[in-house]
Amino acid sequence: MPAWDESRNNEANSTRTFRDIDLNLNQNPITNDVTTVTDINAVKRSIKNLLATQHYERPFHPEIGSAISQLLFEPYGPITANRLKRTVEETIANFEPRATVTKVDCNPLEDTNDYSVIIHFYVENITAELQSMQTVLEQVR
Length: 141
Prior knowledge:
Elements: E1 19-21, E2 36-38, H1 39-52, H2 68-71, H3 78-95, E3 99-109, E4 114-123, E5 131-137
Antiparallel strand pairs: 1-2, 3-4, 4-5
């Protein structure tokens, strides 16, 4: 099951287009510039990057980031899952104004000591279509 939907958003009712750089750094054949991702995919990419960023990792913006990587080394279990859930909600609320989170599910994966996270959110200026994205948070040393 792919965690990130890479299809383009062609929402007709969108009043504003969100556009970010494609982190795969693919080249646009017409403009020879880096391709972009738009609307829903741009917001999903931004959320993914925020969750992977630690505090003090971005130059000149030490406040951007989350404590997720530190929480992954805490004792495994439902208490840590709840703390991860709250951290994901707070990080998105603080640093991604284009997304409004409605629900975050964080479930421990007992076999691998990882956490499966499903984020349900609405994208600003996109008609009331609930979006969701899934990722697995795992310890990386």
